[in-house]
């Protein structure tokens, strides 16, 4: 024990005996115990801290194991990107835009057609689907087919059989009715434009 520690213990002993004499035994004993426990806590904390410091120093000074390097780690460390080389390509030759032919508007005749019958069900669907697949521009969108009618009839005076569309705004036509039908070019369906009766 050092001199400072001896003095501390003597001071503690004197204080404890003085307290025992003045205040009674139990209070003095509690104070002495508290002082001793506080001192013991400090000593324990200091010992733990010193042990941790020594462990850290020992870990830092410990020699490294001579182990072979990990092949994947080496591959990762040595990996890199390929060098990019600049590739110059000539510009494509400028194409001279061909003059777009001006579409000539064609007159389509209107003829009087006597309605023979209206096509319904599968027959109507087949005619509309065939025209749609051929790219006919007169065929309405599929979701409107229910509203449109498809009819066959004969042109008055020419006696030519014509299959044509009847838009919903014309209304229902029945057998024997006369409609003004716009004749279409090849591959298109003719379309009724007016009903005369």
Q: Can you walk me through this structure?
A:
Helix 1 (3-23) runs antiparallel to helix 2. This protein has 4 helices and 5 strands. A 5-stranded mixed barrel has the order 1-2-3-5-4. The chain is α+β, with helices and mostly antiparallel strands. The chain has helices at residues 3-23, 25-61, 71-78, 121-133; strands at residues 110-119, 149-155, 161-166, 178-182, 190-195.
Structure characteristics:
single chain; 197 residues; alpha+beta; five-stranded mixed β-barrel; 4 helices
List the helices and strands and how they pair.
Blueprint lengths: L2 H21 L1 H37 L9 H8 L31 E10 L1 H13 L15 E7 L5 E6 L11 E5 L7 E6 L2
Parallel strand pairs: 3-5
Antiparallel strand pairs: 1-2, 1-4, 2-3, 4-5
Quick overview of this protein structure:
With 197 residues, this protein is an alpha+beta fold. It contains 4 helices and 5 strands, in the order H-H-H-E-H-E-E-E-E.
């Amino acid at each position: 024990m050092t001199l400072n520690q001896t003095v501390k213990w003597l001071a503690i002993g004197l204080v404890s005996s003085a307290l025992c004499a003045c205040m009674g035994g139990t209070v003095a004993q509690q104070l002495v115990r508290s002082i001793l426990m506080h001192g013991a806590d400090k000593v324990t904390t200091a010992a733990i801290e010193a042990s941790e410091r020594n462990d850290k120093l020992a870990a830092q000074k410990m020699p490294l194991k001579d182990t072979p390097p990990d092949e994947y780690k080496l591959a990762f460390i040595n990996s890199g990107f390929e060098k990019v080389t600049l590739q110059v390509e000539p510009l494509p030759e400028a194409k001279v835009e061909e003059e777009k032919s001006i579409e000539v508007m064609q007159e389509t005749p209107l003829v009087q057609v006597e309605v023979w019958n209206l096509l319904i069900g599968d027959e109507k669907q087949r005619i509309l689907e065939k025209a749609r697949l051929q790219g006919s521009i007169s065929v309405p969108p599929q979701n409107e087919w229910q509203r449109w009618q498809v009819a066959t009839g004969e042109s008055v005076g020419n006696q030519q059989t014509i299959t044509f569309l009847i838009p919903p705004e014309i209304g229902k036509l029945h057998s024997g009715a006369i409609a003004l039908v716009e004749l279409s070019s090849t591959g298109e369906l003719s379309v009724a434009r007016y009903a005369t009766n």
